[in-house]
Specification:
This protein has 120 residues and is mostly helical. It has a domain at 84-120. The chain is 68% helix and 7% strand. It has helices spanning 31-79, 84-104, 108-118, and strands at 2-5, 24-27. A two-stranded parallel ribbon has the order 1-2. It starts with a strand and ends with a helix. GO terms for molecular function: iron-sulfur cluster binding; metal ion binding. InterPro entries: 4Fe4S_Fe-S-bd (IPR017896), 4Fe4S_Fe_S_CS (IPR017900).
């Protein structure tokens, strides 16, 4: 059964008519209980509002921190002068050298000759 607190009720009785099972009852509550209920409700509302505010602040702080870290990383990426083609060539030579030594028993001189003859 639904209960309407009389102190909060304005007496308009708009809630009674749409109720499909006629289960709304108005009751009298002592002023102290009513005040206590209102204070508790207000306190919980304030807690909820405070929690939402703290959550927004935390999200904003995290966003600011993430933006700062991102800008630092982007700046470092812009600042590095990497010659990709020379690095790729060095990596290929290193891999080829290891492969020729391990799988084909090439000497250092043979490897050097092989690389020199096949470079374009």
């Amino acid at each position: 059964m639904h209960v309407v607190i009389e102190d909060i009720c304005t007496g308009c009785e708009l809630c009674i008519e749409p109720c499909p099972v006629d289960c709304i009852e108005t009751i009298n509550i002592e002023k102290e209980k009513s005040d206590n209920i209102r204070n508790n409700s207000k306190e919980f509302f304030n807690y909820t509002k405070k929690n939402r505010t703290q959550k927004r602040k935390k999200l904003k702080n995290n966003t600011d921190l993430n933006l700062e870290v991102t800008s630092i990383i982007n700046e470092r990426i812009k600042n590095r002068n990497i010659d990709k083609s020379s690095n790729l060539k060095e990596l290929q030579i290193k891999t080829l050298t290891q492969d020729l030594k391990q799988n084909h028993d090439f000497t250092d001189e043979q490897i050097s000759d092989f690389i020199d003859n096949n470079e374009k």
